[in-house]
Amino acid sequence: MPRLTFEDQVAVVTGAGGGLGRCHALELARRGARVVVNDLGSAVDGSGASTSAAQSVVDEITAAGGTAIANGDSVATAEGGAAIVAAAMDAFGRLDILVNNAGILRDAAFKNMTAEQVDAVIAVHLTGAFNVTRAAWPIMREKNYGRIVQTTSGTGLFGNFGQANYGAAKMGLVGMMHVLAIEGARNGITVNAVAPIARTRMTEDIMGEAGKAMDPELVTPVVVYLSHRDCDRTAHIYSVGAGKVSRVFIGQSTGIEDGDLTAETVAENIDRIDDTATFVIRGGPAAG
Known about the structure:
Residues 9-200 form the Ketoreductase domain. This protein is an alpha/beta fold. It has helices spanning 19-30, 52-63, 78-92, 115-143, 154-158, 164-184, 204-207, 220-226, 263-274; strands spanning 10-13, 34-38, 67-71, 97-100, 146-151, 189-196, 237-241, 244-248, 250-253, 279-282. α4 links the parallel β4 (97-100) and β5. α1 packs across α8 (220-226) and α4 runs parallel beside α6 (164-184). It starts with 9 loop residues before the first strand and ends in a 6-residue tail after the last strand.
């Protein structure tokens, strides 16, 4: 098929100073997009800040003949989210693509988890995506076009020990995706999500030998497709890692109907209620 290109389009990629975000920014730029490389330059836990990470990626892009600018604003504040989008508009005069990728980790077993660890992770992953998307939304609505990609996680979709804060934030992004897909449909805005399985600064310590096959570059092709004008999917979640791509979806079993439902009826029919042999996929503009 023809090569997917992004001439005359502008993309914002948050958390693009390394790992997945860097790969996304580089590939979008290779295919013609002008890119805002956003990264606070913090440590994995969100502490500290530096513009060097984002600028390093910009240097890679420009050395390869592409166009990009660095941005060091924090997604975790409304002001930061607005500044990131303003940087795109000031430099390039438009915004077509938003990849919400920024994230931090504050892992702990739930019995040891603090409110600060929860607040910090939600502020970057969930509130951060809201802040940048909220600033981009009126621009995309006005031009009746936009492509938004959320970065969720298998932890949010399926669970993982020691990451209650991270899982809650990542599943929150799925809920946001479903609502925005409905609200954006009339204005040509698609909103999808990827659940990456990749070796990055955030995951290299926990992946071990398995991480050797999990190059972050193998996630980027799905993000590029979901960012393209020819992609008509919306409210879809894709698990991506080591070259494997599959759809993750929210389904509803056939269940039972009983106008006189009681706790005893539920107990008696719980196997039928749980039976997923037949189901409908829910979510997005067709969910009703």
